[in-house]
Amino acid sequence: MVDSKKIVLIAVAAVAIVGTIAILFGPQFIQPRDENVRPKIVVADAPTTHHLNLYVAKEKGLFEKHGLDVEIKTVESLAAARDSVVAGTADVFWACPTVAIAAIGGGAPIRTIAQVKTPCTSVLLVPADSPIQDYEDLAGKTIAGLSPSCEAVIAIKNAAREAGVEFNLVTMAGGPAIAALEAGEVDGAILEEPHASIAELKGFRVMFREAAEAIPCRTISARTGFIAENPDALRSMIKATDEANALINANPTADDIVEIAHVHTGAPKDAIIRGNPRLGFTIHLDEEGLCKLGDVLVEMGVIRECPSDFMFAPEFRGITWD
Questions:
Q1: Domain architecture of the chain: domains with CATH
Q2: Is the pLDDT confidence value at 22 over 60?
Q3: Residue 268 burial by Cβ neighbours in a 10 Å radius (0-12, 13-18, 19+)
Q4: pTM exceeds 0.70, yes or no
Q5: Whole-angstrom Cα distance, residue 303 to residue 150?
Q6: CA–CA separation, 32 and 282 (whole Å)
């Protein structure tokens, strides 16, 4: 027969032992959250002055001010930055919006959380003595460009088609495109900053600056899983980025801003000084413009349908988009 008194005594002893362990050793078994540990965000980045707000926020301590540990992971291209986030080796990436839109439309687990800058400032550069004066003059010409889905390439191609002509696009990054221009291997090059200013300082002539003026430029996108798990940290990152925007927009050619751009991109300081005033930094998403870019990608056959219903992260509604 079970002795009820013994059971009670055993239970009391067990409670006492557990209570003693909790008092003496509890902190070793139940670790409270360390409020001094900053959330970490890894940003995959292909260096360019278009991402200057990222570098300024990092170098000016704005991320730390908002309680974040932001690591910038340098990659070779915007596509590599996107792929790093999709693969989970990075959390966030700055890129041309078409890079993000095409990935989202193709089912990649990413969403756009903020704008970086607007509008697109890429232009066509041609030799000073080039016969190209208007869009009609592009007929049959060989033009270098970053990619067929680059916003400025799309805009200039569409304008040329409206004029009834076509040109041949050769895909090249900025540096090789300038070298091809100097060697006479192409008739022109569609370049973004700082390469547009580098080419302009070399004596090449700027054409069609108006072509992409209505098109939104770089955006910030993140992995959906990371957004769901770290919405507050990402919101803090965007706040810090917007504070960097204010510093840059107040004086884009200030010595410290130019130095940060130079250190992170390697671009010549004279080109940075020439091009920085053209870069209008903001966090507010141009929803209409980005959705139009999505429609263009559908027309190009890049994606089947525009992901307008799920392009933007709902966690940022009312913050960076309406």
A1: 40-118+216-316 (3.40.190.10), 123-207 (3.40.190.10)
A2: no
A3: middle
A4: yes
A5: 15
A6: 38
